[in-house]
Amino acid sequence: MIKTVSTTPFQDQKPGTSGLRKKVPVFAQTNYAENFIQSIFDSLEGFQGQALVIGGDGRYYNREVIQKAIKMAAASGFGKVMVGQGGILSTPAASNIIRKYKAFGGIILSASHNPGGPTEDFGIKYNIGNGGPAPEKITDAIFARSKVIDTYKIADVADLDLDQLGSFDVAGMAVEVIDPVADYAELMEQLFDFPSIRALIASGVNVVIDSMGAVTGPYATEILQKRLGAPEGSVRNATPLPDFGGHHPDPNLVHAKDLYDDVMSPNGPHFGAASDGDGDRNMIVGKGMFVTPSDSLAIIAANATVAPGYARGIAGIARSMPTSAAADRVAEKLGIGMYETPTGWKFFGNLLDAGKATVCGEESFGTGSDHVREKDGLWAVLFWLNIMAARNESVEEIVKKHWAEYGRNYYSRHDYEEVDSEAANQLIAALREKLASLPGQSFGALKVATADDFAYHDPIDGSVSKNQGIRILFEGGSRVVFRLSGTGTSGATIRVYVERYEPDAAKHGIDTQEALADLIAVADQISELRKRTGRDKPTVIT
Ligand code: G1P
Ligand code: ZN
Questions:
Q1: Protein residue with least CA distance to atom 13, ligand 1
Q2: Residue 455 CA neighbour count, 13 Å, CB half
Q3: Does ligand 1 come within 6 angstroms of the Cβ of 542?
Q4: Which ligand is nearest to the CA of 417?
Q5: Domains in the chain, please, with CATH?
Q6: Predicted structure pTM score
Q7: pLDDT tens digits for range 345-358
Q8: Which atom of ligand 1 is nearest to the CA of 281?
């Protein structure tokens, strides 16, 4: 029943910021997915007889790869596979299942916020037993293996019916098709004060969640509508579709603009939230106030004890380097640890496991805590609702009071997508060359204090990750950061992160782009971005 199939390696299976991401036609090449899955298994030790969790965001090609992964897990000697019904598991739900049932690890099929469909994106990611993305040591091993692999093993059996809940046998391996939502909803109910949130909604606070045709639909429907009593229709675009209904499931001001406009309209909802393809990102919008992800992290940390799951307080906060320093001020006030890591959730794993950090976040609409080892979109939404219920205040009031207390970190990210790779690499290389000469130089009123290429020394395992982004810090706490995206699938994406700290509450009402205008101009001047890329404006501003 077990076949050993000869194959030839592909040279492009290098996992990026979050697993291997390619266009569907690339994944659909003969043996492409199989090679990568076998390379994962070949890089792991000790999984014989253990459980593997498999699930994805429902995008195009999800079911096909799940069938392959189940048959290959059976052939390689896993004892059991737990797979979400219909092949569905949001990324945070998968992380929770791995942890709760002590699985050896998990395979998550997703390309996160990238569009889905026959010519769009697909992805495969391996998560380890703590529920978090595999660390670089493992992803490097997977890549090395993928370059030389010559056979893979697969059970020669019929496809499993993924839609039927229950226990099945696949070539001698147990497969459990599980409810993708139940365990996750139960966890959320433990962490947050559901009765207070229910009362908030019952009092007339109108809450909507846009699932963008992606995986959070069933989760949000169960939690918001069934358990918290929001009226039917409060969850929009609630059915996960292979092409996300044509949505680009990236919760930001460009792709979730309809929701934003609705919340900002006089008769629209009081609170709106959106999540991405695989349910780990979140966007929070209150009437009159869009909450930047960096502020969201700071505000959640500052108010954490209102939620029952965090009532004892938080041990520390971690943020990715490009995320604004708003959370740093909260950590300082609380007298707790603050950790600055490279971009990518995998760097938080050690800090969470060691109990050094309890909440973490990234500017890229990612927030989460030690309840799982992924960022978690609905978790952030529920945290906000819990804070609103506990303080009996609107999003706008909460944010403005936070700024008044801690100061405001004006913050924006400018993305230049599908730039010529050569030009992008040269831009970064040229910046690297300039680093030594920048300190002391003045650009208008801005004087460079320090400049470096961020390197991270993991305080837990001592590993060092270099070249994680060019940072130019100015006197007074302003900064610009440049890095190349590690998740794109065509050309290069240059990300420019701009931040300015404003302690004076009288100056907290300025438009963000205006408040950052001088820094944006200096970023272009130093990097020669426009000249090098031929672009005169960013593709996306968040
Ligand atoms: C992007 C985000 C990063 C996030 C990752 C996965 O990576 O910037 O914060 O962890 O997606 O969701 P990038 O494309 O910048 O490498
Ligand atoms: Zn995602």
A1: 485
A2: 6
A3: no
A4: 1
A5: 2-179 (3.40.120.10), 184-405 (3.40.120.10), 408-541 (3.30.310.50)
A6: 0.94
A7: 889 999 999 999 99
A8: 12
